[in-house]
Each structure stands twice: as structure tokens, then as C-alpha cells.
Write a structure and sequence with these properties.
With 307 residues, this protein is an alpha/beta fold. It has one domain: Alpha-Beta Complex (Spore Coat Polysaccharide Biosynthesis Protein SpsA, Chain A), CATH 3.90.550.10. It has helices at 27-35, 56-65, 84-97, 153-161, 197-210, 212-220, 222-240, 296-305; strands at 8-13, 44-48, 67-71, 103-107, 111-113, 128-130, 170-172, 179-181, 188-191, 246-248, 255-256, 277-279. Strands 3-2-1-4-9-6-10 form a 7-stranded mixed sheet, with helices on both faces. Helix 3 runs antiparallel to helix 5, helix 4 (153-161) crosses helix 7 and helix 5 packs across helix 7 (222-240). It starts with 7 loop residues before the first strand and ends with a helix.
Amino acid sequence: MIRSSPSLIIAYCDYSYRGSPNTDVLLLAASVRRYGGACKSVPIWVMYQDAGKIPARVFDRAAELKVDLIPYRAIQDLADFPFAQKAFAAAEAERLAEGTASELLWFDRDSLVLNDISPLLLSPGKKVSFRPVNVQNIGEEAGAGPAGDRNGFWRRACELAGTDCGVLGTTTSYIDRKVLRFYIAAGLVGTRPEQGVFREWEKLLRIFSGDGFMRAYCSEHGVYRIFLHQAALSIAVAGKVGSGERQELSDLAMYPLNFWEDDPNACRPAVLDDLITLRYDTVLDDDGWLRFPMSVELRGWLRDNIR
């Protein structure tokens, strides 16, 4: 049964890349219930590719946490694009949330909530919230004009989306501090469901993956194949929401734990407990996480809940 909410729904999916992260799929939900502050009791949806294969223990734990397990359809012809399934899960969550909640907060599975998440909520007049990417990766530096699009990838993507590359806006990547054409992370996005941002994300992924140029380029350059979903999300947001209606979230949200030792920014907190949310990628797959500074309470909670 899907529980309704007059305001916020939190959603994420069961997707893991090549089996990692190998943490409990309900770890994020458990962290919301423990540390989410004023929002710790909001409805949480975990989107599942195959609800028929959910172990009984997961159903039991989900019931305990008041989490709804909701099926979404995997798209097999996009299997070559590792993270594409997240867009389809997010789009299905958005369809279900429209008319039910005024805001949908989408997380990647490898996220943890460590403090009150009220600061992540959309401000009046804002329609989408986001974090920039951590490093440039496949992003294109802003202000370079058409010649700055080294390979035509972004130019073709915008053409397929019916969007002018010149009006996307910009973001600054968190770790390497590059000013890029609007390019955001797919790990934490807030939206008003009626905007249809996630459904546009799904639509653009279908279009991009079916285009001969895009498919050939992604096949030749594997990093574009891996991050096609992120380019599609960025263009979907830019096409649906004007720059003045976008809300960039705090550096304390979606903090990249795998960059902790290499973070050049003075805003890095002293301990994990100071973060609003983090993404751990593969950091929790073994005992390496014990090296990070945190309170005894948080360390104990992680030990008890990781798996």
C-alpha cells in the first residue's frame, strides 16, 4: 500500500552497479528514520525492479520502517547504459507522487541521512533542487562556445532534446571547481512532481540511447556510456526549469565520502556527524569506513545497520 503525504515523499531504488554497494537496501531508509529530524516520519518509497524476488526479511524490515516497496519496469534495451534504470525508477515514482505530494526528494541508494533534512526542501518559488557534479568528467566547460564542445556530444544531446546549449546555465563542480555548462549529480534531486522532470529524464534517455551518433560515441568512449544518464538529467532539468527556479543545495548535502581525503574545500566538516547527507559509493563495502572521523554513536549505528 502506498501511503499518502500532503507534502514530501522520499524515494530511491534498489539499483546497484555490479553488486556494489553491498549494503542493506534499506540502510538509507533506516538513516532517515533515525536522523531525519523534522522529516524522519515522511513516506519513503523504495522502487524495486522485481518485487517478486524480494526476500521475506526485506518485507519485514520495510514494514518495521514504514517503507513502501514499489515495482518499476526495467528497460532491457538500455542494459548497455549502466545507470539508466535509475531514471525509469525515478519517473515511476514521480508519476505516483503527482497529486499525492507537493515534493519528491530522490536519492541514490548509496546515500545516508545524518541530520535533519528540512534544509533540502524546496524554497518558495523553486521547482527543483540539486547538487553539482563532483568533478568535470564528461561535462563541458562554460563560455567556450561551440568549439568548446570537444566531440559534439553535448551539442547533439541538446539538439535531440530541443534545447539551446547556450541557455542551459552553469554549475561549478564541487571537487575540481570547474565552471561547467549546467551539469548536475543524479544522487540527490528534489522536484515538484507536476513539473515532470523525471519523466523528461526518462524520455531523453530513450531518445539519446536510440540516436546513432550518441550510441556510437558512447560505445567508443566508455565514460560517456556510464554517465549518459547524468547528462540526460541535467538537460531535462534545464529544459523544464528556468535558472531562477533552480535551488543548489548545501555542500553538506550529498557529500562524496570517496573524495574525503582529496577534498580541497575549506567547508569540509571535521566529522561525518556534521553532514546533512552523504554518498558512500563503495566505501562501506568493507571496513575502510572506520578511518573516517565520526562520533561513537554514529559509528555504532553504522556497525549495527550496514548489512
